[in-house]
Fold:
Amino acid sequence: MTGISKERAIERTSYLAGEGWGDANVFPLTPDASFRSYARLERGEEKRMLMDAPPSHENLRAYLDVTSHLRSLGLRVADTFGVDEPNGFAMIEDMGDDTFTRLLNAGHDELSLYLLAVDVLKKLHTHDRALDLDLPPYDMVALLREVELFVDWFVPACRGSNVTPTEKQAYMDAWEKALERISLTRDALVLRDYHVDNLMITGSLGGVESCGLLDYQDALIGSRAYDLVSLVEDARRDVSPHVYEACVTRYSEGLSLQDQEKLRLDMALLGAQRHAKVAGIFIRLSKRDAKPIYLKHMPRVLRLMKKCLENDALQDVRATIDRMVPGYEEAIF
Structure:
């Protein structure tokens, strides 16, 4: 249990003992960009996963509520065996090691995995009870708070000086104009981090029942385009053009031509929004949290953002960014 305070380690030990797993072997997993951490518990042939979600930084209740809801919709999520909500601990099912990322790195067929991920989204987005959960909307306030990370963190790191109030206002106004329609969209449960790191195969590769979901506790109600663009415009890996088009085509089956065109526009809007957010977050992780490992993905993020910004609906946003940080896509960190 390295990497945590002595007090937190004592709380963990107490929780495990209370759940009857005090004698288990504990193997911490590599931490991600959040404050949550996980450890694999092994006791003979039995396995569990310990989730450590410090209450000061993480919302365990949100995870539990969204988990229960997704399970009720027939989607594959980890079972929950024990919870200490006040202290931020949960004992959940160990669904194994077969994340899509690991499978892809091992040579698994890219197209089949991505199409399975699209099928999971389609099941979620077409379920008549998908929105029967009390969650905040992915509204203008949330969308703008995220793109603000770009001017607060990325721009200063890129050019060596903070943005002026006038620059920031022009940037935020441009985004508000571009996102006006989509900020009112409430047609999907948005999982928000839907990409290959957070998808896994549990059991044999088959239908959507075999696709395990991870990291969805920050879900909101918003646009169905968000998780689709998160999947196919991944900050952490290149997705081939063939797979990208196959995924959008698969998702678009049954949609009218008008809705297909709207989907692609919304993917550009939310793709640009997400990439701007991620660029800011990766700089913040490096400078504030001493996690520079994510900077290796920055060229991809900026390339994806620049591509999305080519859409005419984002011309004002593009112009403000080009004025603040001309040539930003070539930045090296």
